Amino acid sequence: MSVRLALLHLTPSNAPKRRISNAMLVRIQFAILILLISLVTAASADDVAKRLVTLGDPARGIEPCATCHQANGGGSESIGAPRLAAVNAFYLAQQIDNFNDGNRKHSIMQPWAELLTDAEIAALSEYFAALPPASNARVPADSDPKDGEWLALDGDWTERRLPACGQCHGRLGSGVGQHFPALAGQPYSYLVRQMAAWTTGERTGDPLGMMGAVNAKLSVAEIQAVAAFYASLPVADSAVASGASSPGSSATAMSPPQQSSEPAPMAHKKPLPHQGEVPSGRLPGKAGHFNPPARGDKPGDAFGEEVALGERIFTQTNSHEISGKYVGNQQTCEGCHLDAGRLADAAPMWAAWVAYPAYRSKDKQVNTITERIQGCFNYSMNAQASEVGHPPAAESPVIHALESYLYWLATGAPTGDKAMPGRGYPKLAETEQGFDPQRGAAIYEKNCAICHGADGTGGDASDTMVFPPLWGARSYNWGAGMHRIDTAAAYIKTNMPLGNFLELTDQQAWDVAAFMNAHERPQDPRFAGVVAETAEQFHGSQFDYYGKREGADGKLLGTSSPGSAQ
Amino acid sequence: MSVRLALLHLTPSNAPKRRISNAMLVRIQFAILILLISLVTAASADDVAKRLVTLGDPARGIEPCATCHQANGGGSESIGAPRLAAVNAFYLAQQIDNFNDGNRKHSIMQPWAELLTDAEIAALSEYFAALPPASNARVPADSDPKDGEWLALDGDWTERRLPACGQCHGRLGSGVGQHFPALAGQPYSYLVRQMAAWTTGERTGDPLGMMGAVNAKLSVAEIQAVAAFYASLPVADSAVASGASSPGSSATAMSPPQQSSEPAPMAHKKPLPHQGEVPSGRLPGKAGHFNPPARGDKPGDAFGEEVALGERIFTQTNSHEISGKYVGNQQTCEGCHLDAGRLADAAPMWAAWVAYPAYRSKDKQVNTITERIQGCFNYSMNAQASEVGHPPAAESPVIHALESYLYWLATGAPTGDKAMPGRGYPKLAETEQGFDPQRGAAIYEKNCAICHGADGTGGDASDTMVFPPLWGARSYNWGAGMHRIDTAAAYIKTNMPLGNFLELTDQQAWDVAAFMNAHERPQDPRFAGVVAETAEQFHGSQFDYYGKREGADGKLLGTSSPGSAQ
After folding, report:
1. pTM (2 decimals)?
2. What is the 3-state secondary structure (H, E, C) of B454-523?
3. Which residue among B370, B411, B414 sits closest to A394, beta carbon to beta carbon?
4. How far, in Å, CA of A347 to CA of A336, rounded?
5. Which of the listed residues A11, A533, B195, B434 has the most CB atoms within 10 Å of its CB?
6. Closest in A358, A394, A408 to B303, CB measured
7. C-alpha distances in angstroms, A460 versus A297, A338, A457, A472, B55?
8. How near does any CA of chain A get to the CA of B149, in Å?
9. Confidence band, pLDDT 50/70/90 cuts, at residue B39
10. Which of residues 275 through 314 in chain A touch B, CB cutoff 8 A?
């Protein structure tokens, strides 16, 4: 407000003249003063950081940060110091807290961390976050970064319910938000050490204990392979690192063995041997379910290319160049169908493929798989608000690619088997307490907000989707299957939090599903003008809040839907 | 012409007056004379027939026809005399010849047949053919006409390569053309006796020995069941009986247990036991191939209804009320995919379903099953000349039904298996002599013309299809797979004549395929104005005559295509 008034004072002569009172003049002068003070303060903080980085503070015994992290902030491979350049500032500051809390143990860092003031911590964090992307990582000569690609990008859901690293850190390790730091271009030696530390419990303090749970599932060889993969990747710029997982554009890593931001197409390496070890704490695997073909086993022909295209569309639906225009929110197919549609009990595509055509009560006719997919665009991906306003046509390249991918995933599955084990989400029994959004709010805050954001927006304002928005304009609409509390509860119970390492009780799953679906979201595309009528026609279920319950704004859900038809 | 002139003479006074010369008057009087003579002659033939039918010819010892065949021509159950009313006249006359030739043996009929003059045979044949449809058939009280339905309508291709009776006689036994007599409403006792006679060789003279071959595959119980089924059906009117297999409209059978012209939907009876007997002469079965679900095992729900609709469309594509408008010729899906798309080595649908999506060199992209089906409409069913001018859309009820049917046929088939045994037609090795339409012409005349007609039109001018037209406006177009000589040769070798009871040599199959495809047919829908260019672009194969060889009219094939875009 002050700045706007100051600008008003400088209005050019051809603008309408306004009389300026004395009182107003005082306010303007005050505003300018505030502006100048804040500029001086900023410069000062930067100076503080620069001094600490380059000179340290000999009086307190603090060595210059650059000694280990290097002047460019790219870290050091030889001493295992992390890259700090272009890493999220909140995350960096948090790590100093972690040293002080004992969540991180380090003989050199811990004493210094105690000495730093809050202002110094803030200054240093902002300083490094603002540095141009840089990496001093070097992969050991005897390791092939490609060995770890499959775990980093795809995880190992089937055998270990192990999510891909890229699922939270951004596919190519660019870092996501405040809690999931950049991995790309981190020194190999640092990554190996941290992953070992998570496994042993030497490092803690991770949200929901995710890193400990995930790393406990990895063998030493796998840790080394994943570390080599991310160390080899170019560093995305900080803007991207703070938000999205899209490929970085201005990588300046010193010696990335691979310079392209998207890994080149290659045959996937076979998983590394686990030497028969079953890490303690591993959840029951999914053995016994149908296994789709391995990702790397796509045929090397035109059909295989189509399958690969379908896989990319499946995982990047809202941002892919040929499918994005049909998506009216920030969702992807993979958001509801984990592991790129492969995972049993997470509505796997191999089970869906062999179950269609099928009669659906939703539209009271037999649906082909094409129509079933179009239904996902209509509802879960809110096509009504998309660039083109409708789902892809049956003849479109998007449908060609998706159907080819689904079909290929189902290779060997028996046609017509509408009850393959692992199909859909395992139905969750109702509880005595029913479901309650208010109870669910606390569960959400504790277990879900870290990824999906306290406001349910997925915590990411970029175009690409890392964590699916759960309500609001960027989420699925009132016609999507997930808006039903029973469906959402079933999904959550079996699959959330990602990897399901922290199992919720049935009651918690019901409550948090109710909380999620007690929020406003885009209008049901079948809406014909009157919410009560649409509610009666399509939302009669007891597990459905549409038109029945008030949202946060005190209006009946469905009556103030955002992100509806353009 | 004479009649028109006579009418001219009687022109009413308000018509323009014309001067009539003497010469013209003479011609008019002559014309009237001719007219009177012809009326008298016709009456005379009818009188001859009527006298023989009602009085016989006691002087020659010929009993009245009506004694056995009854005054209404509906035959007699008690003495096994066939229904003659509304039966094709050519066929009836042919039977007198058969008695005289010894092809049919009958102690009563043979002596009288010898006594009849050609004029009397012609008069009687015309007389009975022109009678209103009538049947005196009665099914034995202890037999259920439904028992034979499956053999009559569906045959038993899988086990015995046994075509359905309805395949040649018209689905509901209405009779087709001159060679395939009506079965509907024939006395049960007559039908059983004839089928037994074909089996034992007591009756012969059937074209290509078809009836002997077919009946040899039936057990006694099956013969009785099939006889009961057809005896129970209402008699179609003679116009239909002469041509088409569509349901009759004015049946006047005395006691048909079932009055609807289309058998009511019902669970199919299980095949009757064959008592372990393998009739001699039975060709090797198709055991070992994938078996689609039995026709009667469709689910009893909305999806099952969709499957049943798809099956009807598949077998009646060009005449079915919802698919006919997309068909620009006289073809059905079943014409190329025998046994309603079930038969191994006849391009079965269960093998096709699991093979799509797939890349096709035909359009150089990955095709979904929807597009593959649309391709059949485009080419084999010449949609360009159809009522709507294009194939059914992906969202259409026709595609819904066909895909549901194909999918259901593939129940249990492994998704993605692109090489199921029995898929497509078994490739036919090339022969040293190559292929030659002129050699093929003689083979066609001898083995194929009986059904498909000497002129390749399918021998049937009605809207429904009994035998697929092989060339001309009513046949597949120049873009259909069947226009390729290698494809046609493979199909013919394995599947023709129907049931393959008369196996052609490889050389014969090649030659007759070449003959068939050396005829003009509807234009390739990809034609863009210049045959030479279309030929170069799409017809480069050595097995393809389009744009390369002259048709019967001396013009290059493709340059005078009939039945092209409306």
Report:
1. 0.81
2. CCCCCCCCCCCCCCCCCCCCCCCCCCCHHHCHHHHHHHHHHHCCHHHCCCCCHHHHHHHHHHHCCCCCCC
3. B370
4. 7
5. B195
6. A358
7. 33, 19, 7, 13, 101
8. 27
9. low
10. 301-303, 306
Are the CB atoms for B323 and B374 separated by under 8 Å? no
DSSP assignment letter at B429: P
Are the beta carbons of A408 and B395 separated by less than 8 Å?
no
Nearest to A366 among B306, B359, B370 (CB): B306
Mutate to test the interface with A, among B415, B417, B418, B420 (most CBs of A within 10 A): B415
Distance CA A295, CA A286 (A): 17
Cβ(A406)–Cβ(A349) below 8 Å: yes
Burial A469-492 (b: 16+ CB within 10 A, else e): bbbbbbbbbbbbbbbbbbbbbbbb
- pLDDT value, residue A255: 33
Q: Decide if B404 contacts B396 (C-beta within 8 A).
A: no
- Comparing A31 with B504, the larger pLDDT belongs to B504
CA gap B315, B332 in Å, rounded: 6
Instruction: Residue A77: name the closest of A231, A275, A288, A243 by CA.
Output: A231
What CA–CA distance (Å, rounded) separates A160 from B84?
A: 77
Residue among A228, A221, A232 at smallest CA distance from A272: A221
B359 vs A306: CB contact, 8 Å cut-off? Answer: yes
Q: Write down the ipTM of this complex.
A: 0.78
Indicate the pLDDT class of residue B20, thresholds 50, 70 and 90: low
A138-152, A371-385, B269-283, B498-512 — most confident range: A371-385
CB contact under 8 A, A415 and B407: yes
In whole angstroms, give the CA distance from residue B521 to residue B558: 7
Residue of A383 and A277 predicted with greater confidence = A383
How long is chain B? 566
**B395 at A interface, C-beta within 8 A:** yes
CA atoms in the 13 A half-sphere facing the CB of A21:
3
pLDDT band at B30 (very low <50, low <70, confident <90, very high): confident
User: Is the model's pLDDT at B258 over the cut of 50?
Assistant: no
Specify burial of residue B527 (Cβ count, 10 A radius: 0-12, 13-18, 19+). Answer: buried
Residues of A in contact with B372 (CB under 8 A): none
- By residue count, chain A amounts to 566
Q: Is B171 helix (H, G, I), strand (E, B) or coil?
A: coil
How much is the CA Rg of chain A, to the nearest whole Å? 26
Helix (H) or strand (E) holding B437: helix B437-447
Give CA–CA dist B422/B253, Å, rounded. Answer: 43
Strand B365-367, strand A358-360: pairing? unpaired
Find, among B217, B221, B111, the residue nearest to B162 by Cα: B217
Q: Residues A446-504: pLDDT tens digits?
A: 999 989 999 998 866 555 567 899 999 999 999 999 999 999 999 999 999 987 777 89
Strand partners for A367: A358
Domains of chain A: residue spans and CATH: 2-44 (no CATH), 65-285 (1.10.760.10), 295-409 (1.10.760.10), 437-538 (1.10.760.10)
Amino acid A461: pLDDT: 56
Chain A residues with CB under 8 Å of B306 CB are 357, 359, 366
Could you tell me the sign of the dihedral formed by the alpha carbons of A231, A233, A234, A237, in that order? Answer: negative
> Which range is least confidently modeled, A26-40, A288-302, B150-164?
A26-40
- pLDDT-derived band at B504 (thresholds 50, 70, 90) equals very high
Q: How far apart are CA A260 and CA A265, in angstroms?
A: 11
